[in-house]
């Protein structure tokens, strides 16, 4: 009976080692098939890594999957995985280049609404750091601001009081920016409404089982607004809205 814990531990280590040997490195295996031009096999190898520890949010795995799907003429899934990679690494030039290249192949004419440049700048600035780092910076600024105000309250000289008061107020006002960036970054990180159309084309209906407004094509970017049964209400980047079947899209 005393040996049972050691036997259990041995079997656990053995299973872990066996699991790793079976899984292997999906990126290396996928790259080998990709370089050989076997894009379907490359996709299978890359997808073997999805859901396994260490590859759940792998930029390289998502990016390579996007490349393999693009080469395999599956535009919707290529854009889907480029978007997944871009969400983790938004400033990667390679990811952005391939994403824009893939989007140029989308059929139809769905031009995005113009966005005020300050909103675009604010979103880009929010992506520089994750929400936790922006929150940490906010805490540092707020702490410094209150420390300076404390110095103002206990200072002996008029000069020290003036400098401490003005410095504390200025730092607290400046802290509004990182606080806003932290909130915006957290909202973007938790936003799961972005989806990509993965079917060749589908009608955009005015209601579930309603009439067709127009057709949208593979790779089109959508925002999920609502859901009724097997139908979801989606918004397009040009402001149009309609209903499609949930099986036609994949969330980023």
How would you describe what is shown here?
This protein is α+β, with helices and mostly antiparallel strands and 252 residues long. It folds into 3 domains: 22-103, Tetratricopeptide repeat domain (Serine Threonine Protein Phosphatase 5, Tetratricopeptide repeat, Alpha Horseshoe); 118-176; 194-251, SH3 Domains (SH3 type barrels), CATH 2.30.30.40. Helix content is 58%, strand content 15%. It has 10 helices and 7 strands. The protein has helices spanning 4-23, 26-35, 39-48, 59-71, 75-88, 93-103, 117-127, 131-154, 158-174, 176-190, and strands spanning 194-197, 201-205, 212-217, 221-228, 231-236, 241-245, 249-251. The strands form 2 sheets. Strands 6-5-4-1-7 form a 5-stranded antiparallel sheet. Strands 2-3 form a two-stranded antiparallel ribbon. Strand 2 and strand 3 form a beta hairpin. Helix 2 packs antiparallel against helix 3 (39-48). The two termini are 50 Å apart.
């Amino acid at each position: 009976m005393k040996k049972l814990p050691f036997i259990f531990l041995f079997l656990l280590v053995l299973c872990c080692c066996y699991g790793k040997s079976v899984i292997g490195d999906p990126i290396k295996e996928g790259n080998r098939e990709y370089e050989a031009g076997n894009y379907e096999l490359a996709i299978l190898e890359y997808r073997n890594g999805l859901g396994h520890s260490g590859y759940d949010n792998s930029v390289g795995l998502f990016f390579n999957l996007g490349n393999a799907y693009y080469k395999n003429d599956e535009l919707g899934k290529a854009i889907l995985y480029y978007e997944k990679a871009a969400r983790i690494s938004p400033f990667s030039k390679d990811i952005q280049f391939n994403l824009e290249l893939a989007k140029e192949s989308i059929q139809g004419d769905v031009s995005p609404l113009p966005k005020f440049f300050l909103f675009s700048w604010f979103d880009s600035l929010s992506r520089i750091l994750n929400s936790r780092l922006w929150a940490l910076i906010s805490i540092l600024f707020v702490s410094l601001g209150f420390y300076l105000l404390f110095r103002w309250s206990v200072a002996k000289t008029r000069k020290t009081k003036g400098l401490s008061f003005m410095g504390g107020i200025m730092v607290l006002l400046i802290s509004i920016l990182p606080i806003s960036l932290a909130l915006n970054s957290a909202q973007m990180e938790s936003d799961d409404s972005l989806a990509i159309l993965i079917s060749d084309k589908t009608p955009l209906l005015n209601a579930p089982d309603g009439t067709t407004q127009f057709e949208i094509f593979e790779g089109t970017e959508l925002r999920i607004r609502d859901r009724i049964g097997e139908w979801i209400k989606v918004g397009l980047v040009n402001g149009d809205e309609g209903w499609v079947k949930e099986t036609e899209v994949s969330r980023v």
